[in-house]
Amino acid sequence: MQTRSIPKPLIWLWLIATFAVLAEGYRQAIFISPAEATMGDIFRIFFYHVPNASLALVPPYINLLGSFGYLFWRNTNPERAQASDALAIAAAEVTLVLTSIGLVTGMLWARPIWGIWWTWDERLTTYLLLWLLYVSYVLLRRLSSSGQTHTLAAVLSIFAAVDVPITFMSIRWWRTQHPGPVLTGGQVDKSMLPAIFWNIAGWGMWSAAVLCFRYALERRRQKLDAVKSQEFLAEGDARGY
Amino acid sequence: MSYTRHVVAHLRKDLRIEWRAKDSINGMLFFSLLVVVVFSLAFDPTSYPTVARQISGGLLWVGLLFAAMTALNQSWSRELRNHVLDAHRLAPSSASTLFLGKALANFLFVSGVEIVLAPVFAIFYNLHPLGQVWYLLLILPLGTWALVCNGTFFAALSLRTRNRELLLPLVLLPISAPALLAMIQATTAVLTGDSEPGLWLRGLVGYDLIFTTLCILLFDLVLRED
């Protein structure tokens, strides 16, 4: 297996830029942006909740692409198939992290504003189900025996991708209490937009970095597995099996 | 029409095995009866008829879901004995015929349980439905198919993992959430008579169509892949 890695200085540059943008996002959110008229300082949670919850909707598509890639190349190009599978697992775990942050920050906001930690409204239920779907994806990968993990996980990923829009629609029919879409709904005061955009950019860069690190880690694990099984086979040959 | 012939052959085989042993039907029946009894400990259905009407739709489906799950695992694990599944894998027929045959057999078993369970529910929980009861004749089969179709698929998928009994509910429940919501809401609408179940029924039809297609398309991957 050949390795192609990103040059180290580029990685450092990306990380430094990410932390710089996140720091600017923090400054905008905590010090520059004015307190909201009715909610006061509690509103500042939104500068973290909105970016993470919105960004959580991106990696599921990467997961689906990776799964399709695996199924497409699994018989013709094992190297590419393995890379796609690594991308799928990395994307699934990033989805989990982002939805978890979205859910926790949402609950922290809901307690003082709505008076309850949790309510079964449209978006909260959809997000919880999204989170559960990817927990079950990660669990399936944990519990299945090594040879079949990739295919079974890819199949489940396709089911999950089909399920998400259906869940979204059916829960919308059911009930609604969550504040409308923040960015497209036109409810946000102009003075708050910089804080939201800096944080979306910062957390987006951070998610991309985590995704790449997880991908690289999974690729190294795959290579280690390949080396181990080669050694095992060689040992068997030496003993004359 | 060799495809239909293969499906029917698989269906007849599963029905015959069940007819001789009656394992899963008896297990499911007794299990769901126990669920009815256990839920009656949680609230008093006779003193609160309105509450009973509001929640028994959900209870019925939760009971059926758990009962079906016990049978779904069995329906595949019996194929593991004597390496029957490997023989299926080698068979020249399309893999989805095996899936459809088994899903139809499971559908018939769970429907059999429903035919017994629905009157038992009505008697024990003192139910007097206020909506149009004939809707249940649509809701029950559509909901059962939604559970059984995905359930059969994911039971086959978890067959290839280490903790298969544990994995099935963990994977099946999140995927089935929209279908469960639709069938519970539709059943509750019929029992309470507060709303029309039409919207949820259409949702169920859509869910059934989409996921049946997906299961048929992807089953080959689950069965044949090593």
Automatic annotation (TrEMBL), chain A:
InterPro entries to which the protein is assigned, alphabetical: Cyt_c_assembly, Cyt_c_biogenesis_CcmC, Cyt_c_biogenesis_CcsA/CcmC
Highest taxon of source: Bacteria
Keyword set, alphabetical order: Cytochrome c-type biogenesis, Membrane, Transmembrane, Transmembrane helix
GO BP terms, alphabetized: cytochrome complex assembly
Chief location category: membrane
Domain Cytochrome c assembly protein span(s) in chain numbering: 14-175
UniProt xrefs under Pfam families: Cytochrom_C_asm
Localisation per UniProt entry: Membrane
GO cellular component, one term: plasma membrane
Annotated function: Required for the export of heme to the periplasm for the biogenesis of c-type cytochromes.
Protein name according to UniProt: Heme exporter protein C
TrEMBL record, chain B:
A GO-annotated cellular component: plasma membrane
Main location: membrane
Keywords carried by this UniProt record: Cell inner membrane, Cell membrane, Cytochrome c-type biogenesis, Membrane, Transmembrane, Transmembrane helix, Transport
Membrane topology according to the record: Multi-pass membrane protein
Transmembrane stretches, start-end: 25-43, 55-72, 103-127, 133-159, 166-184, 204-223
GO MF annotations, alphabetized: heme transmembrane transporter activity
Pfam families assigned: CcmB
Domain of life: Bacteria
GO biological process terms held by the UniProt record: cytochrome c biosynthetic process; cytochrome complex assembly
Compartments (UniProt record): Cell inner membrane
Summary of the function given for this chain in its UniProt record: Required for the export of heme to the periplasm for the biogenesis of c-type cytochromes.
Similarity comment: family membership: Belongs to the CcmB/CycW/HelB family.
Protein's name according to its UniProt entry: Heme exporter protein B
Protein's organism: Granulicella mallensis
